[in-house]
Design a protein that fits this description.
Blueprint (H helix, E strand, L loop, with lengths): L10 E7 L2 E6 L4 E4 L3 H6 L5 E5 L2 E4 L3 E5 L4 E4 L4 E3 L2 H11 L8 H10 L2 E7 L2 E6 L5 E7 L7 E9 L2 E10 L2 H27 L1
Antiparallel strand pairs: 1-2, 1-5, 2-3, 4-5, 6-7, 7-8, 9-10, 10-11, 11-12, 12-13
Length: 199
């Protein structure tokens, strides 16, 4: 039996169970699919946030937070516990107090350090460095967790992609520092290598 399309407005929450997941739909039906929570997280919009190891909730169907129980109450009455690791980020998103990344703001920060926006690839914003050819930075916004973004730096040399560094930022300031530190490191390596090869 084919899986119904994953349409945001039709899904209240998803409960994972190993390599399977139960999709709780708006009409009250529950569909079991052979997909992991990790897979579904990557293929759903940012309306869905992961509040514990096995639950994704659609924030359009969120009702309130029970702080005493550390749980989320959905409009349908279902109560879902938040994990300790996900609680802070989940509460911030559901109450509208989360730090969010906007591409316009991010482009200004990246431009300051010599990175230029290229495109969106695999859900990440891709940047290339103007003066350090072959170096790329991928920034993906995180939802419903402790971190606001995942940052990955890669370089391409002789058609070979090398992952140089992966960082996670909890705040805008943390993101700024991660970009600054890595760019500074790249410039240092280039300058040292330049002196070595010139000598």
């Amino acid at each position: 039996m084919p899986v119904k399309p994953l349409i945001d407005s039709e899904i209240k929450f998803i409960q994972g169970d190993g390599n399977y997941a139960r999709i709780h739909r708006f009409d009250g039906s529950v569909e079991c699919v052979s997909k992991t929570i990790k897979y579904l997280t990557r293929n759903l919009s940012d309306r869905f946030i992961r509040v514990n190891k096995s639950h994704l909730i659609n924030r359009d169907f969120f009702k309130c937070i029970d702080q005493n129980k550390n749980s989320i109450i959905m409009e349908c009455g279902t109560e879902i516990l938040m994990s300790k690791r996900k609680k802070e980020g989940s509460v911030a998103i559901l109450t509208g107090k989360e730090e969010t990344l906007k591409l316009d703001d991010l482009q200004k920060v990246m431009h300051y350090f010599g990175w230029e926006y290229v495109r969106i690839i695999g859900g990440s914003w891709e940047f290339s460095n103007k003066s350090l050819k072959g170096n790329y930075c991928y920034i993906k916004q995180s939802f419903g967790g402790t971190y606001i973004a995942r940052i990955e730096f890669s370089s391409i040399q002789n058609s070979k992609v090398t992952k140089q560094d992966v960082a996670r930022a909890k705040t805008w300031f943390g993101l700024f520092n991660a970009i600054k530190a890595h760019t500074k490191s790249l410039i240092y390596k280039r300058d040292v290598l330049g002196q070595y090869t010139a000598g």
